[in-house]
Amino acid sequence: MNPPEYIVRRATVDDLDGLKQLWEWARLQVLDLERRFTEFQLVVSNEGDLAGALGLHIEGKQGKLHSAAFTRPEREDQFHALLWERLQTVARNHGLARLWTQEKSPFWRQAGFAQASPELQKKLPPGFGDAQGHWLTLQLKEETLAALSIEQEFELFQAAQKEETERLGRLGRSLKNIVMALVGIALVIGLFFLVRVFIKNPSFLTPGRH
After folding, report:
1. Is 42 in contact with 3 (CB distance < 8 Å)?
2. 45 Cβ contact partners less than 8 Å away, ≥ 6 residues apart
3. Which tens digit of pLDDT belongs to each residue from 9-64?
4. CATH number of 87's domain
5. Which of 80, 121, 146, 206 would give a disulfide with 107, using CB separation of 3.0 to 4.6 Å?
């Protein structure tokens, strides 16, 4: 019998029952995690069996790896490696500059995470937990570059808004010119017919001659 193969994918609502059982087995806070199930990446066998899960909570340009749980502890290293490969892609897609975790598996130090210094822990987003706790962290890219990226995105947004405002202004001026031209043409046509009437009947404008 061939051993099962595994894939990693994002959790959906259909996975919620299986996740709740996994979290209960791992003695995690089920009610809290249930509300945040979309943060989780899952390890699933080719037969559809849930083998493990790991959450990634994102705030700004930082992410927190949390609540790892596995049904087969003897394969944790394999599952950690699969999840880490996937989570690096997710982190890049979100432009994250730094990751944090309080996971205790030795895998994370092997992956490059290191003990956060007191200075670094001051950068911990409030929503991640106690800044005085034991935290491992990994810098993915320069945080100044991440901040610069946000500023650049805002500048691009402002430029797009300015361009749209100018476009609407040009459109408004064009419409105004068209309306003025139509009014002018109507006046010319009206004057033309009035002159023709006067030429054919000079007495048309003379009082008492109608």
Report:
1. no
2. 4, 5, 6, 51
3. 999 999 999 999 999 999 999 999 999 999 999 999 999 999 999 999 999 999 99
4. 3.40.630.30
5. 80
